[in-house]
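Re: Re: token formats

Sure, here are both.
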Amino acid sequence: QVQLVESGGGLVQAGGSLKLSCAVSGNIFKTSAVAWHRQAPGKQRELVALITTDSTTKYADSVKGRFSISRDNAKNTMYLQMNSLKPEDTAVYYCNLYGLRTYWGQGTQVTVSS
């Protein structure tokens, strides 16, 4: 059974940094693309960053140059380093894994104060 558990969210001032982690159970992490999405109140969930099995990355335009996605296959864990945070980055952040179906974590709140 595949389970994803996020950690690392919290409250930070604008300009600050946070690092999110997502631990994945099961045996398919190494062979799966994974990603981070976010959902702000009243808005649709949007892709923030994606990393493939060969570590090719893709970012939303709004976070390019500020966020960095990475993965550690030995630890079955993915990360999202978020720098130069802005109030508009405030959202619930979800990690997900693309397997035979898409698996989602429960989400972690990130709040950026101005």
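Second one below.
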Amino acid sequence: QVQLVESGGGLVQPGGSLRLSCAASGSIVSINVMGWYRQAPGKQRELVASIQGTGSTNYADSVKGRFTIARSYAKNTVYLQMNSLKPEDTGVYYCNANPVYFDWGQGTQVTVSS
């Protein structure tokens, strides 16, 4: 079973940027849609960005224009570039297929605070 390992989170001030990475332990070439999910404190996990095999991307309205998702087939890695971060972006970020297919990884904590 492929395992997903997220990294790149941290504490950042409002307006700052972070780049998250999700490394798969095996090939994810056969997975058409990969996504980044966010679980904010006290809230359910939500899909914030996804990318199809064609390269087509979709974003939640709350992050549109600020976040960019990308994937590397060669590295079996999915990225999330987050710019203009807001306090409401705080949460644990996970990657997975869409619909969810793999076991959840440990996630990476993103905290946006001054």
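The beta strands are 4-7, 10-12, 18-24, 34-39, 46-51, 57-59, 67-72, 77-82, 91-97, 108-112. The two ends are 40 Å apart (CA to CA).
- S.
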